[in-house]
Amino acid sequence: MRFRTFVAGLCALFPVVLFPGSAASAKTPVTARHGMVVAQEPIAADVGLAVLKHGGNAVDAAVAVGFALAVTHPAAGNIGGGGFLLVRLANGKSHFVDFREAAPGGASRNMYIGPDGKPTKDSLFGWRASGVPGSVKGFSEAYKKWGTKKWAELLAPAVNLARNGFTVDQALASEMLGSASTLRNDPESNRIFLRDGKPYQAGETFRQPELASTLERIATKGADDFYDGETARKLAAAMAAHGGLITEADLKNYRAIERKPLEGAYHGYEIITAPPPSAGGLGILQMLGILNGMGFGSDGPNSVKAVHYTAEAMRRFYADRSKYLGDPAYYDVPVRQLLSPQYLAERRASINPAQATPAAEIQPGLILAAAGVHQRESSETTHFNVVDAQGNAVAVTYTINNSFGSGITVPGLGFLLNDEMDDFAAKPGSPNLFGLIGADADAIQPGKRPLSSMNPTIVTRDGKLFMAVGAPGGSRITTGVLQVILDVVDFHMNAQDAVDLPRFHDQWKPDILYLQKGFNPDVEAALVKMGYKTKPINDVGRVEAIVVRNGLLEGGTESRHNGKVAGY
Ligand code: GLY
After folding, report:
1. Residue from 72, 247, 273, 381 carrying the catalytic annotation
2. Would you say the C-alpha torsion 548, 549, 555, 556 has a positive or negative sign?
3. 524 CB under 6 A from ligand 1?
């Protein structure tokens, strides 16, 4: 059913304007004049701040934070995974580095289908779950293009934290314990992260000597050590010994790819975001495009009207995501069509202002042929933003997929491997862990990069930096980042209030509107009356943001979590 007059008469349809009960956090945003780092782990944020204070630029600081997180936040920070780095330089030019993992040369379409025809768990756990890691190459390429300090200096804090240790906080102690069932299965992970059955307590010192040696070699010999040196040889040998797929040739052939970021406009702001193989960046632009000019937000953030229209935009994007998104080197992603004003107008017009559109009535919108398959995704990843005194901004999201990745630590090398192969569509037609539905576009092929929700994003206004934002959270990365952009741009919230506001998530299938803790129950009741099936959820991304306002940097990291805004 199509409604062409969706804006007129909206007030009559929402007789009670319901505002959220807890719109704003009690926390004042941290502000700074010169530079700022916002990260999910405080020690790493301080490492980045120190680089900025000593004259490093935002890329230098991002490299230092990326390696530090590999030590202090092993659940997601990594050198055994991959991700995306978006940089907007002070000269106004933007660049995107894709260092997503690639399927090994020995990978094949049905490698995770068991004899019973069902997907196995091998894409999630164990030696066969890993794609070729990209993080070291990604940071190295960004450094070579835009860094200014000595490479070894940027890795020194990570080496030191690994060698001499750091104090375990409650968050890390809980993360290690929370993943004990995975870590226990691998002798090296069990030894390092669970201390052979005597898990670390908050306040104890955690040292990682093998990781320190690996980082030291990368600091001295560069990324070549990881891809064509001692680390590469040891990693490939361990893979061969345990039935894994990654070979020395896979590592040698791995490339970080500089891509053109996706760009779009929304309510007077320019949005710069991640291109495929991220699905998230296209999602942000598509959902903003559907919401553009709808007057969807006139009743305020998290009002019935705002949630309804935003959730409907989410449903339509996730339907398209299920079919048209994949690695552009292997699948011709119809980016232009999916973002064309005409197509967005059609999607907008299909929203019923008074009723939820059931998931079963929403289909991928373009007329293209592709087989339907399912795709899995994890909730664990990490994001950080850096802005320096010159106005360079960097947003990085990187991951080993699940918390602590595949659960495998390479013996003698001290780092965890990713289970990013699970972000491919493992089996045509099967439901997945997160209910996300993928397509042939994301089927496994050697060398291909799995589809990702990660979408580091930078927003500008009148050509000037306005915001850097991103999040971990699997399929909820995209919807989390979208809402924080809306909260800041449309609802004029500060960075801290925006990240703290309870969020919602809808991914088309399952046909459920997830509401984060703290959502106004009256709003929920009104949404249920409109046809939404609601369920509570802990997190919708853990969004980190820096906003530039009145010449000051304003940072936001969720009060619900352990991140830090470090500025000077
Ligand atoms: N592994 C999560 C993502 O890339 O979306």
Report:
1. 381
2. negative
3. no
